[in-house]
Amino acid sequence: MTTSTQITSEMSLAEKRDIMQQRVAKSLKRRHAQETRFKMIGMGAVGLALAFVVILFATILSKGLPAFWQAHITLDVYFDPDVIKIDDKPVRQSTESEAAFNQRMLAWQTQLGFVNFNRIILDSLEKVIPDAKAYQRDAMRLVTSGERFALRGMVEENPSIIGQTLKLNLLADANVDVWIKDNIDRSLPDAQQQLSAKTRQWVDELEARGIIQNKFSTALFMNPDSRSSLASAGLAGAFMGSVMMMLIVMFLAVPVGVASAIYLEEFAPKNKLTDLIEVNINNLAAVPSIVFGLLGASVFILWFKLPLSAPIVGGLVLSLMTLPTVIIATRSNLKAIPPSIRQAALGIGASKVQSVFHHVLPLAIPGILTGAILGVAQALGESAPLLLIGMSSFVASVPSTPFDQSTALPVQIYLWQGNELRNFFEARTSAAIIVLLSLMISLNALAIWLRKRFETRW
Amino acid sequence: MTFRNNALAIAMTAATAVAFAAPAMARDTIQIAGSSTVLPFSSIVAEEFGNSFAQFKTPVVGSGGSGGGLRQFCQGVGANTIDIANSSRAIRPNELENCFANGVTEVIEVKFGYDGIVFASRTDSGSFALEPHHVFLAGAAQVPQNGQMVANPYSRWNQIDASLPDQEILLVIPGSNHGTREVYEEKVVHPGCDSFDEVKALSGEEKTNFCNAIRTDGRVVEVAGDYTETLARLDAQSNALGVFGLSFYDQNRDRLQVATVGGVTPSLETIATGEYPVSRPLFFYVKNAHVGVIPGLLEYAQYFMSAEVGGMGSPLEAAGLIPMDDDERAEVISAIQSRTLMQP
């Protein structure tokens, strides 16, 4: 120690600087190399992540986009009064009670249910394929079986079309769609094909004549799931189920979460109990979602006796799951508001409640909204807890209340990826993924927009 | 403070109101759950049922495997329990006991058709002509050799029998949660196992355990999910041989080739006549206590059994179900109509 002090004191200032500079110059190259190395690793990591995202989107889009267009057969459909022999649609009389009218309506609908709409479709097919009736079984494979209910629906809505000829775009069978999209190897022998040789020949012929065309398919958006008529399987039921659950999460998890966060952050005393609550909220946010599903199944279904596969139960379970996320996001946003705001409010005589609700909260709202929207988006993409409360069922109707049976978008993806007809449903599954992803992206975009729009900087 | 209290109070009231309003509402939709083999058939019937009867809602069909469905079914009686359990095997005595213990004392058993189980491989791999003992030797943990039980030495199919393809053994079978697994063991593994003299010497339970033990060196893969997962295995590994339901194979004929068992090619005809050995009846179980409470329950069962839904040339046949003959069908229909209950 003494010697070094001696040396230093003996050296001039210039000499000292020289030594320093030499030392710096020596290490400079090494430090530069270190920096470049770190940059490269960082860029590599970002590049790799981006590459995976690109691959993911490219495969999903390339597989799924074609499914938004489906094979349609354009036919002149004659609503033959000789086939559709039904009474006039009942009209409610002023003297009639509602129950009596419903009774008459039901009888009429039952009568309509017995009409052979396959015959109507076959007659229309005969106009474009003269030998359709000779090969009835092959001909009926052209149009998907659900279209007979679509025709029935048209008659039910407006019985005056009986006797008229309408030009309609009927959905082709799933296997016809697979065939014209080349999703099955055309060179395979008959034994390995799904469609008979006769049907395949007709499809090619009708496609050449422009009667079978790939058209944008509304079935995917307007219909609920289907298994008896695969080509008409759609997302309407799952979409409505997801929307209902999201609304429940928004109206349950967000207010409760924000209220508890405000209390914990602004009003609650800091003691052992609130520490314990805070630790538990953080732990709760890390609990795997499937655990919430188990909880939902045993509490809401077995104990509260709520219905199986209903969006109400799904919404409650997802609310529980989203609650900690909302609380944590709200608290961190409240923490970010400078104490000077609170002090200024209190200084001019505002009460604690006034300072929070008039000054702190308005400033924190954009951040809280962002957190809440991200929480809801996370809940929208969740499937594991829903499987345990019976939402992975096959539901062929669109729910009208949260107590009706329903599925959700992510579960519908899971169900479709398990469907037997792989050639058709691989594309359909990717299409469902695209719909779900677009929903998520728009929710996230909304969150970013809100943040940008209302953000305050200090 | 008051604001917080109000907000919380409102939220709590809403939650409680929701929770207690629900039981008052009676369910008007039939709830079905169970076997994933029966699911496609059941879903088609449910959809057609909903479309054909304006007064009933479309039933909801869940999966969960035969065992899972029957467990849910036996949970009790009431609107929050399911009405029908689909099963790809008959209910076991202990499951029925469980049902009775939980108050589900009135169960109607409905057999609605048959299903074949097939072995299939990728079209670009070798084709198989299997005998039950081939399958046993390929998958067993231990095999009998010269009077001794030795660890399974086979790694290629042609080591088992020269007529089989020269490729690695990789057998993809359903997990034990599937009813299919039971049929696979009962109809293929056990007959194959029993053909050895060393095994015949073993006694009841010892024999069953020996025959059911599968090798754990990775050449047998158990799949807990559905057939799509088995197909994905085959897509990834070209030499795999998978176990599928006939209807699944039928809809993916462009990717799969089917193996013969005992020289018989599985098809609707060979299974219906019983020539192809690996087939099984399919069932659903109806909770009699819910008949008359849940609208349309008995009608659904009758509709399912009607010949235009499940007979020859019906939508179910098109989906791969092997229909029952008319006598058997008539018997089942009369059992439904008279609501014949299962005895403990």
TrEMBL record, chain A:
Q: How does it sit in the membrane?
A: Multi-pass membrane protein
User: Keywords assigned by UniProt?
Assistant: Cell membrane, Membrane, Transmembrane, Transmembrane helix, Transport
Q: Spell out where the chain crosses the membrane.
A: 40-61, 230-263, 284-304, 310-330, 360-381, 431-450
Q: InterPro entries of this UniProt entry?
A: DUF3333, MetI-like, MetI-like_sf, Phosphate_PstA
Q: Which Gene3D superfamilies match?
A: MetI-like
**Cited PROSITE patterns:** ABC_TM1
State the protein's name. Answer: Phosphate transport system permease protein PstA
From TrEMBL, chain B:
Keyword hit for Lipoprotein: no
Superkingdom of origin: Bacteria
Domain PBP: residue ranges: 23-308
Keyword annotations for this protein, in alphabetical order, are: Signal
The record's listing under InterPro entries reads:
PBP_domain (IPR024370), Phosphate_ABC_transporter (IPR050811)
Question: Which SUPFAM superfamilies does the annotation name?
Answer: Periplasmic binding protein-like II
Name of the protein this chain belongs to: Phosphate-binding protein pstS
